[in-house]
Design brief:
Layout (H helix, E strand, L loop, with lengths): L2 H64 L12 H12 L4 H25 L8 H12 L3 H23 L3 H6 L3 E3 L9 E3 H13 L1 H8 L5 H10 L7 H5 L9 H21 L10
Antiparallel strand pairs: 1-2
Length: about 280
């Protein structure tokens, strides 16, 4: 082999080896990128879980603070709104100031977010026009009109959705049979099973909320007893819908009715049947 041929051969080998080394480097870089991506994915998953846990903890802290005053925080509170409330709690603000802050958030758009999420939820879509009409009445301060609609449509959507997720007809009928509640506040009453289930769902979010919404009120004495427990105001679903409470038309009760709608919408998002091809709430 001539010197020129050797030189060319060596150049080809060197070039091939350089290419080989480059490929190996690319492979190593690609593998490192994949490893980094996997690590990042795990970190992001962990961050998501941490955020979810922190969110639940923040809601629990707010609800615990407001509980004795008959108030609670809606799930649609934004992170900024939650932080603002927690900052006020940490600064020593009383519950009245926190409630006023929530009312201010409603004036700033929280109420509209709640309605928009509800009408976009699978369980409320057949009730969109009713909710929109009720929200219009709410913005016009016609609280005597909007509160009963918010309450009735919230309960109706819950009953309908729960019946939907129970597969067998005979099991669905069990939802409406009366049973003795194990809760101390309602133990003397025979309640439909579905009301007991609703009570437990709401209780997991806020004991104050479940107490006000599911407590049976058959007389002015019952209502007075409930009001004495929550002097800041009581949203008595039973008292309003059965005509016992005739002084319910307040902005506070209207906001609470919206908040209840938001809580039930959040619950129904998790109860959504897997076989329904609908968007998430």
């Amino acid at each position: 082999m001539t010197d020129l041929a050797k030189s060319l051969a060596n150049a080809c080998v060197d070039s091939w080896m350089a290419s080989y080394d480059s490929i190996k480097e690319l492979e190593e870089a690609a593998r490192k990128t994949l490893d980094d991506f996997a690590a990042l994915f795990n970190i992001e998953s962990l961050k998501t879980q941490v955020r979810a846990d922190r969110t639940a903890e923040e809601f629990a802290q707010i609800n615990e603070f407001l509980e004795e005053h008959g108030w609670f925080a809606p799930p649609s509170l934004s992170p900024v709104e939650r932080k603002a409330i927690l900052a006020r709690i940490s600064a020593g603000s009383d519950a009245c100031a926190i409630i006023e802050q929530e009312l201010a958030f409603c004036r700033g758009g929280l109420n509209l977010r709640i309605i928009e999420k509800a009408v976009g939820c699978w369980a409320f879509r057949s009730r969109e026009s009713l909710l929109q009409d009720a929200y219009k009445a709410y913005t016009e301060h016609r609280f005597s009109l909007c509160i009963p609609v918010f309450l009735s449509q919230t309960e109706g959507a819950y009953v309908e959705a729960l019946a939907t997720v129970v597969p067998a007809a005979e099991d669905r009928s069990m939802l409406f049979r009366r049973s003795t509640s194990t809760d101390t506040e309602t133990a003397s009453w025979q309640l439909p099973v579905i009301e007991i289930v609703l009570h437990k769902h709401l209780q997991a979010f806020s004991r104050t909320l479940s107490s006000q919404v599911t407590q049976s009120v058959w007389s002015q004495e019952d209502l007075s007893e409930l009001q004495a427990r929550y002097p800041r105001g009581v949203l008595s679903r039973h008292g309003i819908m059965h005509g016992i409470d005739t002084d319910y038309a307040t902005v506070e009760n209207a906001v609470k009715a919206l908040f209840l709608l938001d809580v039930v919408r959040e619950i129904l998002d998790y109860l959504k049947p897997a076989n329904l091809r609908v968007e998430s709430c």
